Amino acid sequence: MKFDLHCHSHYSDGKHSPSFLVHRALANQVTHLAITDHDCTAAIGEVKDISAMLTLIPGVEISCEWQRHEIHIVGLCINSEEPQLESLLLAQQAGRRTRLKEMGNELQKLGIDGLIEYCAKLTCKSLSRSHVADFLVEKGIVKNRQKAFKTFLTRGGRIFVEPNWCDMTEAIDAIHNAKGLSVLAHPTRYPLSKRKLTNLVSNFAIAGGDAIEVSYGNVDLHTQKHLTEIALAKSLHVSAGSDFHDSNAHWTDIGKYPTLEERAKKNAIWEHPKWHS
Ligand code: AMP
Ligand code: MN
Ligand code: MN
Ligand code: MN
């Protein structure tokens, strides 16, 4: 069995359709795939009947606030039609639209028009700063996405707008209410000290969190080992996924992440008593 429990389609900031992701997963021998779009579950229904050869795990990645830090919680095995989860995701999507409008206004003040029109043409239901970055690249304002984030979109950037995400505990509760399992995504991608990260994992466990991602993208073995240790110390399960967005980014692919350690495999989220496919 080969799992990829974290990736994005064009319904959030991924480049490809859900069916492209499923076919790519099959080509890469992935047996269990979760498409986990940012604050959006539109991909789930679209690929439900596409392939009998692969198990699709209904998923989502929710942007949250924890002690004024932005963190991401992945929900797996969710019932995406459950009303509490649905309304939380709709509120997050509305917040994203409001933020986009404000970023559009800030850009206009700088003499850059057309963001809203650009975004209106996208398939996306969960508008993200990545789309603003692509717009700035397409307009020739910046050379690449990285530059767009650095100069315009991160805190202190020229058009940074404070997001208004739900609290971490709300996301965990909504996922549980939708019969899902909650996973703290890519813990080392947050700008947190080691101590603060341990604190986050503790709070996540106290809030009822189920697992933490210990392997993703190009995470190094030392980091993976450290994360596995904190997870197991808190009796949490572990999860893994590529966080794939785009086939043009050659360093990522569906199913591509460092192999889990044996002790992690024994405590993998797919071994959780509440895991169901
Ligand atoms: P948002 O959820 O709208 O705040 O957008 C965040 C998304 O932008 C993340 O999910 C990443 O895919 C992407 N992202 C965040 N930071 C960067 C960065 N520095 N460079 C490129 N992409 C980024
Ligand atoms: Mn993303
Ligand atoms: Mn994320
Ligand atoms: Mn992600």
As a percent range, the share of helical residues equals 25-40%
Q: What's the N-to-C terminus distance?
A: 13 Å
| Coarse structural class | alpha/beta
How many strand elements?
A: 9
Instruction: Identify low-pLDDT runs.
Output: none
Strand order of the largest sheet: 6-4-5-7-8-9
- At CATH level 3, the topology of the largest domain is TIM Barrel
What fraction strand? 5-15%
Number of helices: 10
Name of the CATH first level of the largest domain: Alpha Beta
Fold and architecture overview:
This protein is of the alpha/beta class and 277 residues long. The protein has helices at residues 18-27, 42-47, 83-109, 115-120, 129-138, 145-153, 168-177, 194-206, 221-233, 262-266; strands spanning 3-4, 32-33, 55-56, 59-66, 69-76, 166-167, 181-184, 211-216, 237-241. It has ten helices and nine strands. Strands 6-4-5-7-8-9 form a six-stranded mixed sheet. Strand 1 (3-4), helix 1 (18-27) and strand 2 form a beta-alpha-beta unit. It is globular, with a radius of gyration of 18 Å. The relative contact order is 0.17. The model has no long low-confidence stretch (mean pLDDT 96). The structure holds adenosine monophosphate (AMP) and manganese (II) ion (3 copies).
Quick take:
The protein has 277 residues and is an alpha/beta fold. The protein is 39% helix and 14% strand.
Key attributes of the depicted protein:
DNA polymerase, domain 1; 10 helices; TIM Barrel; single chain; binds manganese (II) ion; 3-stranded parallel β-sheet; 2 domains; alpha/beta; 277 residues; 9 strands
